[in-house]
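Q: What does the assembled structure look like for these inputs?
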Amino acid sequence: MRDQALWTWHVLAGLVIAVLLGLHMTIMHLDVIVGVFNPADPHPIEWGNVVARARQGFFLVSYVVLLGAALFHGLYGLRNILFELGLGTGAKKGVSALLTVGGVALFVFGAWAAWAASALARAL
Amino acid sequence: MITAPTDVTFRIRRFDPLTRPQPAWEEHTIPYAPGMTVLDGLRLIKETRQPALAWRSSCRMGVCGSCGMFINGQPRLACNTQITQLDGLPVVVAPLPNFAIIRDLVPDLRPMFDAHVALHPYLIRDDTAEMAEPTGEYYQSPEELEHFLQFTYCIKCGCCMAACPTYATDAAYSGPMPLTQAHRYNADSRDGGFAERKAVLAGEQGPWKCHYAGECSRACPKGVDPARAIQLMKRQLVFAYLRLYAQPCPSKVLPKPTEMKRRPDVPEAPAPTIGT
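A:
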């Protein structure tokens, strides 16, 4: 049951990454066509555009969701690679615990950074 | 492909836990005969040079699945491999990889069959009385048969298991043959055992570690596509986890021709014109 659940979430996280990373690439590289997300200047990484996006709740949510999906997708893949090294049951449990703790810590830190950037942008 | 030689050299890996505890290579040159298979060559070597050489074989026609061996770097059936089919000589023969060796070219296939049995490779239904004493055939349309037909051609030779890079490194993974056979029954419209098999498949023994190298499908001497079965099974299990898949009720027993009623829109057959 556990592997079935993990694999399903791995696939769903991949779909989320495809959509949100697609959105990110669109904003960053198709800026001439999709100017709506870059109101300050044509260049997407100009300070004014970064602040304008950070003020929007949609981008805060999408950054946090993308962070969670990318961390889960990547760390699950890393777990599978490590398991193929022929680890014993104890080592597998240790690797899973380490990756879970590391993943949660990175997610909390990243989510806090996204929220702080959003709060800073709104204060400007 | 090579042109027919006059002599063929066989390089065979020998191992005997009692007399030869370290595996070693042995070479034998034998005369080539047109149409000679690797199994024919091994038989000739056993009859004329090495009576103690051991391997498994039975039908000599690619049906029983006994003579799976590692021939010139590929898992193949010895009876189904012509000498002239090989890319080059000598003929290098070793036991199937990914299995322990019992002796010479005899691999220990018990882990494969243990995993096979654990996945309940048979029809599971509630009507146990009908299963024990069948009164007729279960209904199955040609379209329903197509869903699993190719997977029934598996002869359990172990070539796919020997080719699988995941099975080589992960002892918990069931491997392509047992998983394909589990899917063969999951996809059978007469079967109702998906939930029972899922109890095993949802865990570490399931298809999750397959990274779709596709070597199993390339190695299969019967043209079965285990990689496809594994991906279809993954999809079925993902949908089941998301509660988007419910196994349909197993098909019912087909009424006997004498019990069937003719559809009113189908006219009766005309009276016979001969033999009356």
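The two ends of chain A are 49 Å apart (CA to CA).
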